[in-house]
Amino acid sequence: MAERLGKYTIILNSHPSVTGFAAVVGKTEGEGPLKDEFDFVFEDDTLGEASFEKAESALQKEAVTRALSKAGKTPDEVDFSLAGDLLNQCIGSSFGLRSLNMPFIGLYGACSTMALSLGLASMLVDCGAARVTVASTSSHFCSAERQFRLPLEYGGQRTPTSQRTATAAGASVVEKKQSGKPTVDAVTIGRITDLGIKDANNMGAAMAPAAANTIADFLKDTSSSPSDFDMILTGDLGKVGSRLLCELLQKDRGIDIESVHADCGLLLYDAEKQDVHAGGSGCGCGASVLNSYIMRRLESGELSRVLFVATGALMSPTSSLQGESIPSIAHAVLLSKPT
Amino acid sequence: MAERLGKYTIILNSHPSVTGFAAVVGKTEGEGPLKDEFDFVFEDDTLGEASFEKAESALQKEAVTRALSKAGKTPDEVDFSLAGDLLNQCIGSSFGLRSLNMPFIGLYGACSTMALSLGLASMLVDCGAARVTVASTSSHFCSAERQFRLPLEYGGQRTPTSQRTATAAGASVVEKKQSGKPTVDAVTIGRITDLGIKDANNMGAAMAPAAANTIADFLKDTSSSPSDFDMILTGDLGKVGSRLLCELLQKDRGIDIESVHADCGLLLYDAEKQDVHAGGSGCGCGASVLNSYIMRRLESGELSRVLFVATGALMSPTSSLQGESIPSIAHAVLLSKPT
Fold this sequence. Notes:
The structure is a homodimer.
Chain A: E1 2-5, E2 9-12, E3 17-25, E4 40-41, H1 52-70, E5 80-85, H2 91-97, E6 104-106, H3 113-126, E7 132-139, H4 141-148, E8 164-165, E9 168-175, E10 183-188, H5 203-221, E11 231-234, H6 238-253, E12 261-263, H7 264-267, H8 271-274, E13 280-281, H9 283-300, E14 305-313, H10 317-321, E15 328-336
Parallel strand pairs in A: 3-4, 5-6, 5-7, 8-13, 11-12, 11-14
Antiparallel strand pairs in A: 1-2, 2-10, 3-9, 7-9, 10-15, 14-15
Helix pairs in contact in A: 1-2, 5-6
C-alpha cells in the first residue's frame, strides 16, 4: 500500500524492483564516456529506417525489447507499458511499441518522461494494479532538431547554452521486489514551474527551478539531507542548468547539493571533445544514462541510494512563437541497491 | 487495494467517487442537444485570448477550476492533476494548468485521454497514493484544424466521414468513496491496435477496432454481457466508427452491443442541423459529454452502470505524411450510480 509522506512524496512500502533495464544509443552517444555501458550502439543513426521519426520508434522498441528480455519477460506478460517522448503526438512511443500488444499508458512529460514513467510504473506495481510493467522513453537528435529548431540541412549555428538532444532510448522493467535487483522506494510528482524564461536555446535555465522545487520537496517530505544520497542525479540540465540548480537551492533554501549532484546531460558526452555545447538533453538522455551506468552500479551495490530527478520543458514551437515562456517540471524517483 | 481480474482489467475495491465534475464548451457545442447540460458555454470561441491555443488552455483551466469548486476543493489540496490533449507537446494542458501549482502527471492518449486520466486517477486514489485527484482534458476546433488539417482561412471542404473536433473541456475530481457521488469501479487499459487504416479523414474507422478490443476484453475479464450496462459509451467514433464497432463486435465475437451503445460524438451535436459530418471528436468531446449529461444522470441514479470507453488515434500529421497507418487505442472505465 502506497503511503503519502509530507505534501508531495509517495513511499512505496513494497519496494518494487527494477528487474530489467536497457539503454541503446546512436553513434555520437556511443563515442562518449559511457560507451561501454550501453546495451547497443547503432553506428547508423537511421537504424535503416526511411525517416528519423521511424528510427526513433525503432530505437525505443529496441530498448523495451532488450529490457524485457533481460527481465526474462515477454511483451504478453506486461500489464502496463508506460511511455512517451518529445515528438508531436508522441509517435516515437506509439509507433515504436504498437506491435508489442501491451496495455499502453501514454505519457507526456518532455525530458522528464523517464522519471514519470518509472515512478508511475512503480506506484502501480506497489499497489497491486500491475505485476509486470515497462517504463520507457526515447529521443533522436535528427527528429528533434527538425521539429523543435531547424532542419539539419540548414546547418544552423547553435548557441553556447544549447544542448544536444540525445539519440538514445532507455527502458526499465518494474515488478514486485526481487532479491539482487535495485528497488524503487519513493516517488515525488513535480509541479509545473514557470519563472518566465523564454529562451528556447537555454532549456537548462528554464528547467532548473522545477528541479529545485522537486528536490526541496523531496528532502523536506522525507526529512533527509543531500548527504543521505550517493547521488542526486538530474536528467538533462546540462552545464548552465546544473550551475543554476545548485545556486537556486543554495541561495533560496540553504540546501547544498554540489558534492552529490550529477547530471545525465553532463555524463553522456565529453563536452570538450564532442562539440555538444552545454551538454545532452532529450528524453533519451536521462533514460539511457539511468538504464545503463546508474542501474548497473545500483545493481552491483557500488551506488547505494540515488535520487533520480528528470526534468522536462513543457513548451512547443507554437507556444514559443506565440511569445510564451517555458513551463517546466521535474519528477523524482528514489532508487536503492538490492537488499 | 487494486485487484486484477482476467488479463486486462483492474477492479477498484474501494470504489473511488467522482466528487466533482464540470464541462465547458464553445458556441457550436452550446447550440447542440446537450446545451442545457454544460456548466458554461463560451459565446466567443477565443475566450478573449490572443490565439486558439491559448483559448484551449483557458478552456481546460475553466473546467478544472469548476470541477474542483464543485467538489469543495482548492488546487492546493490536489495530490495529482492528470491531463493531456491533442496539441503538440500537450500545451493545452501544461499552459492551462501551470498557474494552479498542482503535482502534474502529463498524459498522451489523443481522444482517449478522458478515460485514461480518469482511470489512472481512480487507481491512484484506490491504492492510497492520492487523496484528491483531478482528471481533465480539452480540445478546440480551431487549434486542431490548423495543426492536424489546414488553416481555417483556407476554407477546405470536409469529407462525409470526417468529424468535427469539439471546442470543449471536461474535468472530474476523484476522491475516496463518498455517499451520493458516482463511483469508479473498474478500469481496462487498452492496447495499441492498428488494422492499417490510413485515411486521416476517417478516424472513426481507425479507432473502432481498438474500442472493439477493449470492450471485448472488459466483458470477458468481468464475465459480463452488454445487457449488464445501461450504456456502453464510446468517446468519439461518430457515425461511421460507431457502425463499424457494432459490426466488428457482432461479426468477430458474437457480441451485440447495439441496444446499449451510445457515442459522445453523436450525442454532442445534432448531426442533421449542425453540419458536423460524421459527428464530434477530440479529447473534449468525450470529456464534456461524460462530465455533464452522463455524470448528472449517474449522480441522480437515472443511469446505474455506464462503461465509458474513450478512443484515441495515436497518429501525427508527420506520421501520416510518411505513409504510416493510424494506430489507435481505447481505455474503459466503469462508472456506477451512488450506493
